[in-house]
Specification:
- By secondary structure, this protein is of the alpha+beta class.
- It folds into two domains: about 160 residues, Porin chaperone SurA, peptide-binding domain (Triger factor/SurA peptide-binding fold), CATH 1.10.4030.10; about 90 residues, Chitinase A, domain 3 (Roll).
- It is built from eleven helices and seven strands.
- The strands form two sheets. The chain has a four-stranded antiparallel sheet with strand order 4-3-6-5, sandwiched between helices. A three-stranded antiparallel sheet has the order 2-1-7.
- α2 packs across α4.
- The longest helix has 30 residues.
- The protein is elongated.
- About 5% of the residues have low confidence.
Length: about 300
């Protein structure tokens, strides 16, 4: 988000004198007296826009959408420059051999641009990670009690990793499925007998283990309160009607759930701490943007 866009007289003068400057030399951002040029911004955009040529030439893409993406990248660029200044104040450095080793790794996706620009981009990314490491070092690991409380407040996570072993029987007629369901409920028929009487397909009725998260909502609703050995109400899916029988619930490991909850808590805490840190850097910096020199129309993410 860009909050201060008033160009000081000194900078305005340089702009007036800079009419003879090439477009890539013209200032677009000034942060605490340090001027960043349009050429630097365009290099950053090129490195961060995947499929930049396709993105630019996509006839289906709206101009406003392209401007919105670039606007958020400009915000991020400014944030990164603030963090890099913080890295310099903390005297953090990156070893040149480490840079070259990562750039030469075939698995490293370094984006567009020549080696020099990709190297500078990578150095900045690693410096930012060093600052993050120092800023977020004190984020504490939550206790088991705190993780259990988080799970209680987020019941959807309790079913993460849950599986069920079940049997299914498909019917072409919803009326036939309803008839078989009534007989199952009245104990006039077992599920095995229903399979034998209603299909010659040997694959039907065979127990199968299925991840709970893969079921569509209507199946989850039909199964969620069933105990072992119980059969579901008829469920319409894709033009056919199904009956399901729960053979066994396979619950996730409670210890694994606690560790998942801890990871979620830590991730949220780290994200909040980092956002607060960057917000403080912005609040204490003098940031000016020369919008007329930008290679796109800036779209703010907050009321101006």
């Amino acid at each position: 988000m860009i909050r201060r866009v008033i160009v000081p007289l000194a900078l305005a003068g340089s702009i007036a004198c800079g009419l003879a400057l090439e477009p890539y030399e013209r200032p677009v951002v000034n942060i605490d007296g340090i001027t960043l040029t349009r050429g630097e911004l365009e290099a950053y955009l090129a490195l961060n826009l995947a499929g930049a040529e396709e993105f630019e030439n996509d006839s289906a893409g709206e101009a406003d959408q392209r401007d919105l993406v670039r606007s958020r990248l400009l915000d991020t660029w400014i944030d990164e420059r603030l963090v890099l200044s913080e890295a310099a104040e903390r005297r953090l450095t990156i070893d040149d051999e480490q840079l070259d080793e990562q750039l030469d790794d075939p698995s490293y996706e370094s984006g567009a641009g020549d080696r020099r620009s990709r190297r500078a981009y990578l150095r900045n990314r690693l410096l930012i990670e060093l600052v993050q490491g120092e800023v977020l070092h004190d984020v504490a690991l939550p206790s088991s009690k705190e993780a259990a409380a988080w799970l209680a407040a987020n019941p959807g996570m309790l079913t993460a990793g849950r599986k069920v072993r079940l049997r299914s029987l498909r019917f072409d007629s919803a009326e036939n499925a309803q008839r078989v369901h009534r007989n199952l409920r009245r104990d006039r028929l077992t599920f095995n007998e229903a399979v034998v009487q209603n299909t010659d397909d040997e694959s039907q009725g065979a127990p199968t283990i299925v991840d709970w998260s893969t079921f569509p909502p209507e199946v989850q609703q039909a199964l969620e309160k069933l105990r072992r050995g119980w059969s579901s109400v008829p469920v319409d899916l894709g033009g056919s009607t199904y009956l399901f029988q729960v053979v066994e619930w396979i619950e996730p490991d409670p210890d694994a759930q606690i560790e998942t909850a801890r990871a979620e808590i830590v991730s949220a805490a780290r994200r909040t701490a980092w956002e607060g840190f960057v917000a403080d850097l912005r609040a204490n910096a003098d940031i000016q943007v020369v919008r007329k020199n930008l290679p796109f129309h800036y779209i703010s993410d907050e009321p101006e």
